[in-house]
Prior knowledge:
Layout: H1 16-22, E1 43-48, E2 54-60, E3 85-86, E4 92-93, E5 99-107, H2 110-113, E6 120-124, E7 128-133, E8 138-143, E9 149-151, E10 161-169, E11 188-189, E12 192-198, H3 200-218, H4 223-238, H5 246-258, H6 266-269, E13 278-283, H7 294-314, E14 320-322, H8 325-334, H9 336-347, E15 351-353, H10 368-386, E16 392-394, H11 405-411, E17 416-418, E18 434-438, E19 444-448, H12 461-469, E20 480-484, H13 495-511, E21 517-519, H14 523-533, E22 542-544, H15 560-586, H16 593-605, H17 618-647, E23 654-658, E24 666-672, E25 688-690, E26 693-699, E27 704-705, E28 716-719, E29 724-728, E30 732-737, E31 742-747, E32 752-753, E33 769-774, E34 793-795, E35 799-805, E36 810-818, E37 824-832, E38 846-854, E39 859-866, E40 874-879, E41 882-887, H18 893-897, E42 901-902, E43 906-910, E44 914-920, E45 925-929, E46 932-939, E47 951-963, H19 968-978, E48 982-986, H20 988-995, E49 998-1002, E50 1006-1013, E51 1033-1042, E52 1048-1054, E53 1059-1065, E54 1073-1075, E55 1081-1086, E56 1091-1099
Parallel strand pairs: 13-14, 13-20, 13-21, 14-15, 16-17, 17-19, 18-22
Antiparallel strand pairs: 1-12, 2-3, 2-5, 4-11, 5-10, 6-9, 6-12, 7-8, 7-10, 18-19, 23-48, 24-26, 25-26, 26-27, 28-29, 29-30, 30-31, 31-32, 33-34, 33-39, 35-36, 36-37, 37-38, 38-47, 39-46, 40-41, 40-43, 42-45, 43-44, 44-47, 45-46, 49-52, 50-51, 51-56, 52-55, 53-54, 53-56
The structure holds zinc ion (ZN).
Zinc ion (ZN) binds near residues 488 and 609.
Amino acid sequence: xxxxxxxxxxxxxxxxxxxxxxxxxxxxxxxxxxxxxxxxxxxxxxxxxxxxxxxxxxxxxxxxxxxxxxxxxxxxxxxxxxxxxxxxxxxxxxxxxxxxxxxxxxxxxxxxxxxxxxxxxxxxxxxxxxxxxxxxxxxxxxxxxxxxxxxxxxxxxxxxxxxxxxxxxxxxxxxxxxxxxxxxxxxxxxxxxxxxxxxxxxxxxxxxxxxxxxxxxxxxxxxxxxxxxxxxxxxxxxxxxxxxxxxxxxxxxxxxxxxxxxxxxxxxxxxxxxxxxxxxxxxxxxxxxxxxxxxxxxxxxxxxxxxxxxxxxxxxxxxxxxxxxxxxxxxxxxxxxxxxxxxxxxxxxxxxxxxxxxxxxxxxxxxxxxxxxxxxxxxxxxxxxxxxxxxxxxxxxxxxxxxxxxxxxxxxxxxxxxxxxxxxxxxxxxxxxxxxxxxxxxxxxxxxxxxxxxxxxxxxxxxxxxxxxxxxxxxxxxxxxxxxxxxxxxxxxxxxxxxxxxxxxxxxxxxxxxxxxxxxxxxxxxxxxxxxxxxxxxxxxxxxxxxxxxxxxxxxxxxxxxxxxxxxxxxxxxxxxxxxxxxxxxxxxxxxxxxxxxxxxxxxxxxxxxxxxxxxxxxxxxxxxxxxxxxxxxxxxxxxxxxxxxxxxxxxxxxxxxxxxxxxxxxxxxxxxxxxxxxxxxxxxxxxxxxxxxxxxxxxxxxxxxxxxxxxxxxxxxxxxxxxxxxxxxxxxxxxxxxxxxxxxxxxxxxxxxxxxxxxxxxxxxxxxxxxxxxxxxxxxxxxxxxxxxxxxxxxxxxxxxxxxxxxxxxxxxxxxxxxxxxxxxxxxxxxxxxxxxxxxxxxxxxxxxxxxxxxxxxxxxxxxxxxxxxxxxxxxxxxxxxxxxxxxxxxxxxxxxxxxxxxxxxxxxxxxxxxxxxxxxxxxxxxxxxxxxxxxxxxxxxxxxxxxxxxxxxxxxxxxxxxxxxxxxxxxxxxxxxxxxxxxxxxxxxxxxxxxxxxxxxxxxxxxxxxxxxxxxxxxxxxxxxxxxxxxxxxxxxxxxxxxxxxxxxxxxxxxxxxxxxxxxxxxxxxxxxxxxxxxxxxxxxxxxxxxxxxxxxx
Length: 1100
Ligand SMILES: [Zn+2]
């Protein structure tokens, strides 16, 4: 090869950073060299709404009769009867939340039509919009500058006048304010309403160049990085601003890096590396409510999904997944035609429903049965509409993962789980990306957390690279899922993203320098690949128990009412289902299956991962969720009352109380005085009268109200000499100071003092001590509470006793505490009289009923009990179908991170021979550190709802000391504290025979937690396409779980029904193993913490 002997003009080595920085000039749409560079050529031509190619009119949808924003559907509007107004570019539309419809008539310039070129409609009003054909077919969404182009399909590239309608909602993708309180007075400007004849090659070159320069900038090292910089420089140098054709030359240069196949899906058919490192799947996370109401979500769904249907048409490699069957149901109600189009793309594997649950629910707070129902509702809907259930639980964005999720998934036919939120941990980095997650009972699911740490990737070069390099356990199966597409407020992938991804794959094909990304494989394909390469998962690491999110710990407490009403709704539902099931298999009572189904849908909806946690804007709670849950409770009450009436006859006048729990108990019931028949009362009966209410103690074993003689341990209260009150039933003795705190709680039988009176930094030595903490998190006020505020608090010391009532049945003392000028607490501390026999021991707790006036600013109210339990390093907190263990110490950062945790009906701190539980009936936040037990009561975060929790609150909790460690007695007592006996005037024999229909005996830790009718019984089935069971049979479904963590045995007994067969099924009630029925009972056996479902098939 020849070589010059003399160097006349020396060559300089480019200065890397200067050459790299200069590359930005080429496609900078807003830069000062725009007219000299590529943006000059983006359009051939453009006409706008101010030219005679357009007629543009607008109509503001009037508010409804209550003055609220109306959102009528296309089909409900008579477009011919509207008084249209002229609309122009630059006009403002608003205020926030309102709806406008544009009527758009356009005429495409005829010379454009000869060119066989793409034609765009560009619309940008800075808010969300949806364009419809004049006949009402929704085509595609707009969302301001980020999504402004509608690429006309061929059937729309025609001459003459064409009419479209375009609906805009006066909100952005994130409502009307992000994180803060929404701006109620926002207006949106019509920036563009244009027809565009684009230079497609120039726009493609922009994308080519984007990826090549990202490669040059973002690759850490290696020759490819510099090759990319060189090619980008050559492209700039080859570009001639006076010659549009130079664009083609530039694109040819780009092929050196991108390869020749990027203008079609062909690029994915070439695989020189012979491997897939990253599976790309489109999605658009639509929060079912958050910074916007449910009503707007219904429109976000159709906006987002029609857009994705259009993309699926244009990009054959594209697969889109959508979760939350509630959203599919709304779509079916509002736009059945769009659901039909989705089903077409479902058959070609491009639009895939996923997830299995009704909504993407919170997993911390819903009760166990609720979590099962999330899946039962979701999976059955999927089977009904799409013919098959989901195999993946899809929950990218939720605030922590309770320890029984893997078991509940497995019980719902799901073995794979996807989430992402854990990358938000603000203390420790979670160590795994692909792993087995093991539940309390040992059930496991295969988990993947997308390594790019987002479910809303923009599909940039960096997202593709991070999907592999940030994988936490690359040694196992080195592949990652890339979830791309705008999300949270919906939206989903854009054309541009799919173009960028084609180029990323081109780079991998050509250079091998970046992970090989693939499109066209499903999420299930991804998991199958992981299983294949990991010996069916056996080689993957395991995470056992709760996956605690180290963030958003305030969500266990914020918006107290949604949490309280959720607990109440779940309990009322439990009671109704039990009663209705027994009545419907023993009488002519008709099981209200449609009503029950609809109520479950509402309950499940309100468990969405921003709704139940309390992180939505106020509008969601005050206009939608609170009325919805209040209606749920009211409907449940009235259905239960109807069912009780069906059981009773008008001549029945005995005071009865229906016990919906599977064990005997004694508890107080309340009846209105004027509804009581005079004959039922006599002087012997133990009673407390308050206004027109009478309280009795009902014993379910004796099936009657207790008489005074039954109370072997009557309650009483008396004032001791030193301004201390003694509340006692001779089993428990509580000493309460005149300031309303608990100075002593003494267990007489076990000779044990419960309250540790030592004065420390965190304790004044009293129980029931209210503590007011500052609550100023770094970010996200409704979501977060931070550890530093554990050090900034004051005790509420100046309480006052306002009244005292001594009664053998229930004695009490009422105390008040001032919190501030506008806030205060009134607490009734009470103790019941006891019979001292067996089961009643279990309900011997000191109860606190609080009425709070709460008008605080960034304060957190908690109540604490320092107890004489010293040795446990772990405390136990009730969770769904079991208990979760958390440290009581601060040894490591992982322990410190759990400074506030979620629990259900009880938390427990126990030494081997004695323990203390705190019970509650509507609270979820808790913490036990050292010997200090704290229950979180109320927060006062000011964003995104500045009125959150302001006003009056009522809640109850109790302290329950017990012999031995956590035991079945605690589980039962916590249930009793939540599930009230249902008083009615009836006949105790009828009540007993009804409740005897199905009973459980055996090990004490077994809980018969739910009774319902089988989903597909002919008188129950509400599904259109799922066949009903034979009319000759009916079935009862009974859920039993083991509550303490030990293999257990028991028996289910049947009475008054003709049992044909008993099956142990999964939670979806699919047929399973048959059990032997012997003497009208079946023996059952459960693993520790197992959730078991039994289907008892009977003759109808
Ligand atoms: Zn979300």
